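Sample entry follows:

:::
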Amino acid sequence: MRIAHFGHSCLLVELHGKKVLFDPGTFSHGFEGLTGLDAIAITHQHPDHIDPNRIEALVDANPGARLLADPQTAQQRGDRWEAVHAGNVLTLGDLRITGGGGRHAVIHPEIPVVDNTVFQLGTPDDPAQLVHPGDSLWVPPVPVGVLAVPAAAPWMKLSEAVDYLRAVAPRTALPIHYGIIAPEAQGIYFGRLSEMGPAGTEFTVVEPEDQREF
C-alpha cells in the first residue's frame, strides 16, 4: 500500500492496483493535478473535506473515477455521485470498499449533525487494510491495518483521540485532520498519540505532499 498525504484529511491511497483519493478539501493542496484516479471518496460535506471551488476540475480531470460520498453529499453533488451508506460493500477491481459509521461527531448540541461515511479499503478476507474515518470516532468491527486517525478537531479532545486509537488498535496509525494546528504545535498532538497509543501500533507521520509505503 502506498499513501500520499496532501494535507489535513486528503489522502491518495494506492492499494490492489487502484488509486483512491479521499477528502480533497480547502485545507489540502497538491491534489489538483492528479489524473488516473479510480475513485474519489468524500466522507462528508464540510468544505475542509470537499472544496467546492476545486472539486469539479478534479472530477473533470478524472472522467473514469468512481465518485463516492456520504448520502447527503452525494445528493447535493448530483447524479454522478454514489451514496455510500454504512454497511454498503463496493468492489473496484480487486479492491473492496466497505462503508461504516454514518454520522459526523457532535460539534455542539445546537449544530446539526451531518452524514459521515467511514471508508474501509481492503479485500473480502481483510476488509480494513486502510480506514479513513472522516470526522468520526467509529470503531471498525474487524482488525485494522492503517488507521488515518484524526489528530485535532473542533469536535474532539486530545484524550478522545487517544482513546479512539486505543479502541481501534491498528497496526499503523497515520495522523490526519491537523490543518487547524499551527506547525509549531503539531508535536504536542503527535507526541501524545505516539506515546499513549496501544502497544504494537506504529505511529507514522506522512508530511503534506509526501508519501510512503506501508
